[in-house]
Write a structure and sequence with these properties.
heterodimer, A: 283 residues, alpha/beta, 11 helices, 39% helix, globular, B: 310 residues, mainly alpha, MetI-like fold, 2 domains, 75% helix, 2% strand
């Protein structure tokens, strides 16, 4: 771990870090609040498709950060770099740095299993396993191993409460998760992510497949969750970004156009393109 | 609704006439196709019904407890054949299913797609095309005799089962690989996202999810195995001893129901061969049906256990 090569690599990374602070784009705000996750000069490409171009972005701790932009702007691709989901796509190439609490997640010494436990993810479409409600939430604990039956039951209950689903399912924990409605399934997926006690939650358009009432519930839930978790949520829905987030990043064609607190970006966008998007001229 | 009204309200003209003719022709064509397809399906159903009824009418009268469990020199009773059929089937499945599903897991989840996997696929597909008679000879050379010199297992149920397993391996691999690939990316990602490893994802998510399709694959394979004849004639033998056949010794020779049927046709030892044939055929159909239903029930029960109630 402490051999020569890694030292050299981290020196190079520090160098890169410094350069980036200078080469920062004009409309990407530096935060004065604690930063949980930081991307520095991040590039992601699939084959010849350069999906994310030199994005540097700080995600503040225990706040909701919305990643907003039209379809195909790279916001989901960016999100999926933060827990190394791109490892699963052979054609994806990722360069640059992402840090979690200041540690590089792409460094060879990073345990990707541990990383994904710390950085949980909720997907666009509810994707519960074809198992019981209980087993869905317990899954992350079971694959970790080392928990007693009572501990698992306890954490399943707490997670379901955390995801505001407990009262609806407490009498049928052993029913199939597929018997739940779409909105309930999505909250189950949030509970499943919470069960392994992550620090960061990545949400990839978590409400886009849901009806308005279920969407409202998810948004209320996100608001509660930010007390304990750092949240990054991808959305192409302006109103949603406005409702749930404290900070907003606007992506366009793989580039980060603007980043600042949500109020500012909605009332006084600095970039013409952001303004066009917010006023509904495209997207 | 309104658009239809508007259209009929348009004054008659050349373009309108052409359109009306076209609609009328489409309606006629619809009706013709419906009848044609209905007729084709009906023909298949009729053929099948005729075949099953013919077999059952000839066979049901023959079947008795003694027919199914007894044995004698002339082969009037098929006790040994019933036993061998199931014995060889179970043995062959025990060899074939773990190998096949294991191979499918490797091909679908672990192998880096490239030259090697293409070679493996080419090999399985070629194997699937090899006539069972040829594989029977192969089984004879490898499992019965040791390359023609001396004996390995001799004519035996084990040699038969091994040959059947090889014969059906491509089918199991193919169906299982498709089953694994059909599990959605979203479920895989959900598993990885809570920190599961690859093997955990395979064994705790993919395999249970693909279970119904595995079952279909096993049912298909079982059907083929119960019906297989050519590959068994050279490997498991064409006869069973009159006594001592009720043993779990895999090195014992033993003919199955289909091989028995073949023997009855081709040799004139059994005086009432026709009746025994009808009975044997009826039993085969009944077993296939029972096996199919049984496996489906088992799979549904296991799925329910995994997926939870309701």
């Amino acid at each position: 771990m402490h051999d020569m090569t890694t030292h050299m690599a981290s020196d190079a990374r520090e160098q890169q870090l410094l350069e980036n602070t200078h080469a920062d784009g004009g409309h990407v705000a530096k935060l004065s609040v604690p930063v949980k996750v930081e991307a520095i000069d991040l590039n992601v490409s699939y084959g010849t498709n350069h999906a994310i171009k030199n994005v540097s972005l700080q995600i503040p701790e225990r706040q909701v950060t919305a990643l907003m932009g039209p379809s195909g702007c790279g916001k989901s691709t960016f999100l999926r770099a933060l827990n190394r989901m791109h490892d699963l796509t052979p054609s994806a190439r990722v360069t640059g740095v992402v840090t979690l609490d200041g540690e590089d997640i792409f460094s060879p010494s990073t345990d990707v299993v541990l990383l994904r436990q710390r950085v949980g993810m909720v997907f666009q479409r509810p994707n519960p396993f074809p198992k019981s409600i209980f087993e869905n939430v317990a899954y992350g604990l079971r694959v970790q191993g080392g928990y007693s039956k009572a501990e698992i039951a306890d954490m399943v209950e707490r997670s379901l409460m955390g995801a505001a689903l407990w009262t609806e399912v407490k009498d049928r924990l052993h029913s199939s998760a597929l018997s739940l409605s779409g909105g309930q399934q999505q909250r189950l997926c949030i509970a499943r992510a919470l069960a392994v006690e992550p620090e960061v939650l990545l949400m990839d358009e978590p409400a886009s497949a849901l009806d308005p009432i279920a969407t409202l519930k998810i948004e209320e839930l996100i608001d509660q969750l930010k007390e304990n978790y750092t949240i990054a949520i991808v959305t192409h829905n302006l109103q949603q970004a406005g409702r749930v987030s404290q900070y907003t990043a606007f992506f366009l064609m793989g580039e980060l156009v603007e980043f600042s607190d949500t109020q500012q970006i909605f009332s006084q966008p600095q970039d013409k393109r952001t303004e066009d998007f917010i006023t509904g001229r495209f997207g | 609704m309104t658009s239809i009204v508007e259209r009929t309200a348009v004054p008659p003209g050349k373009a309108n006439d052409a359109r009306a003719t076209r609609r009328a022709r489409a309606r006629v064509m619809d009706r013709v196709m419906t009848w044609l397809l209905w007729g084709l399906t009906g023909t298949i159903v009729l053929l099948l019904a005729y075949f099953i009824l013919y077999t059952l009418i000839g066979g049901l009268g023959v079947i008795s407890w003694k027919f199914i469990t007894g044995s004698n020199v002339t082969g009037d009773y098929v006790g040994p054949e019933v036993f061998n059929t199931f014995y060889i089937l179970v043995l062959a499945l025990l060899i074939c299913v773990p190998l096949g599903i294991g191979g499918a897991i490797y091909l679908a989840e672990y192998a880096v797609q490239g030259r090697f996997t293409m070679l493996v696929r080419l090999a399985t597909e070629t194997l699937a095309g090899v006539p069972s008679l040829v594989l029977g000879f192969f089984g004879y050379l490898i499992f019965v005799t040791a390359y023609g010199e001396g004996t390995r297992f001799g004519l035996s149920r084990l040699a038969g089962a091994l040959t059947l397993a090889i014969l059906n391996l491509p089918l199991i691999v193919r169906v299982s690989e498709d089953a694994l690939r059909s599990v959605s990316t979203e479920l895989r990602e959900a598993s990885y996202a809570v920190g599961a490893s690859k093997s955990q994802t395979v064994f705790r998510v993919l395999l249970p999810t693909a279970l119904p399709q595995f079952t279909t694959g096993i049912i298909l394979t079982s059907g083929k195995m119960i019906g297989e004849t050519a590959a068994l004639i050279f490997t498991a033998g064409t006869s069973s001893p009159v006594s001592g056949w009720f043993t779990l010794n895999p090195l014992f020779p033993g003919d199955t129901l289909t091989v028995h049927l073949f023997e009855l046709q081709s040799e004139g030892i059994t005086p009432n061969a026709h009746m025994v044939e009808a009975g044997t055929a009826t039993l085969l159909i009944a077993f296939l049906l029972l096996f199919n239903l049984g496996f489906r029930w088992l799979s549904a029960a296991v799925s329910r256990r995994i997926a939870g109630r309701g």
